[in-house]
Amino acid sequence: MTAITSGADEPVKKSFNEVWVVCTGHALTHWYPATFYLLMPLIGKELGLSYTQIGAIMTFQYAAGAIANIPGGILVDTVGRKGLLMALSLFWIGFPYLVMGYSDAYWMILACAVMVGIGNNLWHPTAIPWLGNRFSERRGLVMSFHGMGGNFGDAVAPLVVGFLLTMYSWREVVVMNVIPGIIMSVAILIYIGRIQSAEKKKGNKEEKGDVFEGFKQLLKNRSMVMLSLSSGCRSLTQGALMTFLPLYLANNMGYDVKWVGIAMFATQAAGFIAAPIAGHLSDKMGRRQIIMGSFSVTAVVILAMIFAGGTDLFVFLIALLGFFLFSIRAVMQAWLLDSTPKHMGGSAIGIMFGSQAVAQAIGPYTAGVLADSYGIMTAFYFLAFTIVLANVFVFFTPASAKEVKA
Question: Is 402 a member of any domain?
């Protein structure tokens, strides 16, 4: 459990460059999974995998993240070297995809997915509280920028990799793909490390507390519990959607890999545009109203996609879905940090992302079983239900102090 304080009570000079560096790293943590979604149909075809087996790959990844998230959050609140943790997380995400490029065994794909799940879910408990605490007066804005970094990686990766796959094999692409992650890991390690060294020279120190007692109090925080459950349902919807949407476009609508990449880019680009809008409106109107409105529209759009399957309208609805579903991550994270003690930010984010990982582990596999048993469109009905459930949890989240005053 850590909190940065100054012995002289003087504010530490901060540069917004910190935000851009961390956001770039966040973009790459999303770049690799977004690339994998696009590679999945090619890997599945080459290895002769069923929908259930493909869903199981993502389930293993998310399950590993679920197990690692909460211990990771506690570790972040205990360890002071945030730059090292972020750099380690980013490397840990990219390297397993390189290993996949040299593997023909299904079990090795599953093992690499586990490694990715652990690395990917160490990033958020480290980076989100770091930014939220250093820029607490502009938390909504900074969280939206951090979210935009993730949206940028999600959006650009399918577009770039889709075109690369027209020239290279998927195995060659994953080898090229690991280089940016290694470079950014080193950059983060050096940059954040220098910031922390400068803080120590100015007399700043990190206070230690009883991590486990603080963790027990977090579990009694109803706002944190409801928000974590809602965020889990939202992530379940997104994870299963991103797994089966490329499969539907490729196998049912006959899109080649380039056009699948463009369609997935449209989804994430819409979320990228909407993130700062949602963050700003949540600061002005309240987090609850923005989240519930977004989830309600998301459910309607998913149902509309079912009836528009096989038509050009389906692609338009994909972009509309991204606008409302993918922009809410930052708003939920900001609400969580608003509702929990500052010094327990890593653990709180770890719990939220642990909930997300559990839900994401359930989602792709469940959707895969439904798709194999009743047809792929059944999976989309399932996702409409899960996003409605997310809205129910938001409805029962206690009012914040800001809402009560209003």
Answer: no
Cα dihedral 107/65/93/230 (nearest 10): 130
Report the C-alpha gap between 263 and 339 in whole angstroms: 37
Q: Which residues contact 154 (CB under 8 A, 6 or more apart)?
A: 30, 31, 34, 268, 271, 326
What is the domain count for the chain?
1
In a domain, residue 181? The reply is: yes
CATH at residue 319 = 1.20.1250.20
> Assign residue 55 a region: left if phi > 0, alpha if psi is -120 to 50, beta otherwise?
alpha
- Among residues 149, 84, 78, 88, which one has the least CA distance to residue 119? 88
In a domain, 405, yes or no: no
Question: Residue type at 261?
Answer: G
201 in a domain, yes or no?
yes
Q: What whole-number distance in Å separates Cα of residue 395 and Cα of residue 379?
A: 25
Round to whole Å and give the CA distance between 248 and 379.
10
What is the token pair recorded at 152? Answer: 């940028």
Cα 245 to Cα 65, 111, 317, 347, 371, distances in angstroms: 22, 24, 12, 33, 12
Whose tokens are 């599953």? That residue is 110
| Overall size of the chain counted in residues | 406
| Host domain of residue 229 | 14-397
Give the model confidence (pLDDT) of 189-242 as tens digits.
888 877 767 766 665 555 555 667 777 778 888 888 999 999 898 888 888 888
H helix or E strand, kind and range, residue 41: helix 17-47
Written as one string, the DSSP assignment of 309-321 is: TTSHHHHHHHHHH
Residues 6+ apart with CB under 8 A from 132: 139, 142, 143, 333, 334, 337, 345
**Contact present, 85 and 32 (Cβ < 8 Å):** no
Task: Encode pLDDT of 61-116 as tens digits.
Answer: 777 877 777 777 777 777 657 777 888 888 878 788 788 778 778 888 888 888 88
pLDDT tens for 106-165 read: 888 888 888 887 887 778 888 888 887 787 767 777 888 888 887 788 778 878 888 888
Please name the helix (run of DSSP H) or strand (run of DSSP E) that holds residue 387, with its range, or none.
Answer: helix 376-395
Q: Two tokens at 303?
A: 């149902």
Answer whether 96's CB lies under 8 Å from 115's CB: yes
Rounded Cα distance, 253 and 216, in Å: 50
What is the pTM (predicted TM-score) of this model?
A: 0.70
